[in-house]
Amino acid sequence: MNKKLLAAVCLAAAATFNTAMAEDYTNGDARYAEPDFDRQMTQAEAENVKADGKTRSGEEIDAAQSEPLPITMTGDYASYDSVSGDFVAEGNVVITQGNETLKTVRAVGNMKTGDVWLKEGGTLVEPKSIMNGEWAYYNFNTKTGEIKKIEGKGNKDFFKAPHATIYPDKMVVDQGGVTTRCPAKEHTPCLSIKAKTFEIYPKEKMVAHDVQVFVKGTHVYSRDTWVNELGKDSGARIMPSIGYDGDDDKGTYIKIKYDYDIDEKTNVHAELPYYSKGHFKPVVEVKHDQRNYYLTYQSGWEEEDDEWVDKKNEIGFYYKPHYFIDGIPVTYRLYAHRGLWKNDETGRQSWHTEYGAYLTHDRIYLFNTKNTFLDLTIGKKWVDESLTDETRSTMMYYGTLGQKLGSKWYTWAGYYREKVTSDLYDLGQPDMERELRNGISYKPDDKNTFTIVNRYDTGKHENYETTYTWTHRFCCWAITFEYEHAHTAKEDTQWNIRYEFLNW
C-alpha cells in the first residue's frame, strides 16, 4: 500500500525547516572570508536551479517534491481495507523516507481521500530538525492540515506552539507561540520571542506578527513584525549590537538592524548605527526578490579603509547563479548597479556605475575526502565614474584551498587577484593587486574560537597585515576581541571589540 500518506503530515512540516544558501562576490570583505567548511550544497542547487541553466518553475518544484521516494515502515500491527481505503497502523510505528524518520504509536487514514490522522501524536527526526506533535491531521491530496501542541528544534531555532495550520505554500502558527535560539536548559532563555502568529514559508523565511521580545523572561519591548530568514543569521537583528572599532572614524558604537516586508517578495532593510567618532550613519535598502534575480535600491552610508561613502539612489540588478550546460559543474552570475557616490572626507561626488560577471566552479573535493576542498571563481568587472569620464575594467581570480585538521583545527589558503578600478573611492577596491591569505582556526570547545589570518602582498613580496581573533560564547551572548597588526603602515594597527547576541 502507499504508505507515503502516513508520513505526509510531518514531511510537509519538515519542509519548513529546510534551508537555502546563497553567496555574494560582488563587493566587500565577504570575497575573502573564511570558507564554509560545512557547506555541501552547490550554489546553483541552493537557488533551485536545474543543470540545464533553466530555473525551475513553481509547478516543476512541486512535481519534484512530490516524486515518490523509497519508504520503509515497521510496526507491530497494520491493516488495510482495499474497498473503503481505510488503514490502521499501530505499535512501534517507524516510517523512513529519505532523510526523514517518523515515529508514532498509531496512525489511521484513508488512501482514497488522502486523509491521515496521528491522534496520539508523533515525532519527526531529520538531519537538522526534530519536531513533536501531540495530534496531527493532513490531507495529501489538498496538502492541507493542522498540528496541535508542537515542540521541537529546527536548525538554530527552538519552538513551541499550541496549534498550527498547514497550507500548500506555508505553515501558520495561529494561536500564539514562542521561539528562541538560546540552548540553555537550566535557566530562563537569554532571549525569546513571543508572537500571536508565525507565518513559515518553506526554505525561505518566518514572519512573526505582534511580537514581544523577552530578555531573561522580562519583557523589554514589542514590535509589529519580525522577519527571520531560515537557515541564516537573521537580517533583522532583534537586539542591538555594541562594540568598539579602532578605525579613526568609528570608535564605540551601537547598531540596530530592522526589516519590514512590503509583500512576500519585497523587503525593506535598515541598519541604524551610531559611532562615537563617525556619528549617525544609517543605510536603507529595498530588495525585490524573484526566482532568477533580485533588484535593490539603496541609500545611505558604507565604510571601508577609514573612508565613509554616502550612496544616493543606487539601483542594482543581480542575476542568481545558473548552470551553463548539463553535466558541467560551473555556474555563472551577473550584476550591475549605479548610484551617486559622495566621499565624506574629500567631498568628491560621482555617478558610480559598476557591472560584472562571475564563473564559479562547484566545490572540488581532493584526495577522495570531504576534508580537503578547492573553491574557484573567475570574473570580470567594469567601473565607470562620471567625475573622471572614464571606464576601467579588471579580471578577478579567487581561489581558496581548505583543509580540516581533525575536529578542532581548520586551515585555509587563498589567492586573490584584482586590479583597482576607481581612484575616487576605496570602497569596493582591493587593498593589493595580488594577495595571498593564510588562515588557521582552532575551536577547543563550543565556547571558544581562535583565528589567525595573515595577508601577504605577492606583488611587493611583503606581509601586509596579520589579524588575531578570539571569540567567546557565553550562552546567547558572544564577545569578540580582534587585533589587526599592520606590517606596512604601523598607524593602521588597531583593536576591535564586539559584544552581541550571537544566535540572533
Task: Summarize the structure in words.
The chain has helices at residues 4-14, 43-46, 58-66, and strands at 71-74, 77-80, 86-97, 100-110, 115-118, 122-126, 129-139, 144-154, 157-166, 171-173, 177-180, 191-201, 205-215, 218-229, 241-245, 251-261, 266-275, 279-280, 283-289, 293-304, 307-323, 330-343, 349-365, 372-385, 390-405, 409-418, 434-442, 448-457, 462-473, 477-486, 494-501. The protein has 504 residues and is mostly beta strands. Strands 15-16-17-19-20-21-22-23-24-25-26-27-28-29-30-31 form a 16-stranded antiparallel barrel. Strands 1, 2, 3, 4, 5, 6, 7, 8, 9, 10, 11, 12, 13 and 14 form a 14-stranded antiparallel beta sheet that branches. A hairpin with a 4-residue loop joins strand 24 (372-385) and strand 25. The longest helix has 11 residues, at 4-14.
